[in-house]
Amino acid sequence: MLEATKSTTSIPENPALAAEARIARIAVTAFPILVVIAGVLGFLLPDLFKPLGVSVPYLLGVIMFCMGLTLTPPDFASVARRPWAVALGIVAHYVIMPGAGWLIAVLLQLPPELAVGLILVGCAPSGTASNVMAFLAKGDVALSVAVASVSTLIAPLVTPALTLLLAGSFLHIDAGAMVLDIVKTVLLPVIAGLLARLFLSKLVAKVLPALPWASAVVISLIVAIVVAGSAGKIVAAGGIVFLAVVLHNGFGLGLGYLAGKLGRLDDKARRALAFEVGMQNSGLAATLATAHFSPLAALPSAVFSLWHNISGAIVAAWLARRPLKG
Length: 326
Hints:
Helix 3 (56-70) packs across helix 10 (175-199), helix 5 (83-107) crosses helix 14 and helix 7 packs antiparallel against helix 8. By secondary structure, this protein is mostly helical. The chain contains 16 helices and no strands.
């Protein structure tokens, strides 16, 4: 979540908000580069990053705390004002991406660990940069923020249940332990960030412009750690994983937009749903895969973290140049 995206879908007139918008754009543009560098370092220097594996849940907690810092009461009020659009976005997200992950894993005959990893990515909540992409695409940012917020808050229940349902035939899934992990690494940090925003608003306002960079750097570090953990198998598995991730992300972006069209939402809302469905919290998926399965199972999450930011930026730039439909 990025504060700069909330005020409007055009560049804000307020100089401070305009500055935040510029920082958000730069961070999103630089993010794929940072992730690529991190992945290369993790592959070339696995002994340096492997010992940091135990810190991945805490790093994710930092990201989710930053997300909580950007949330405000109006974000939740928008859910009550537009329950149909938000509900459609949530259902589309948690139906399309888990289902697509399972289907691709079966069609490509992925090994069990990679199959579970891909499905787990699909069962994760919306990605932390999705509302920035909606902003850049001239989409409905308020809807984007609402869907991402709700999908994150219900993730402790929905993500383990869907993972057990769809991936249980590949590997043993301890859904109960997964619930506790998501509560600790996602829900509690988000709530802590939200409380900090409410009670330390002046201090938080000073650090908001830095949050996109903080999230980008921490996610990149998670990618380096995940790649280091499976460096020995990347050469053999990398090609098929990349294909699976590209297909998965493409299904999400396209079907997310289609879901908005079928739900008779306007074009701005459709653009927002494209990113809310197609972009995943790959940091959470990588954390859960590493903790509950293996570093190899976390590889799809690492690749997804890179690709969905590249594809998201490309699609956002393309949509931004297309006139909004009536």
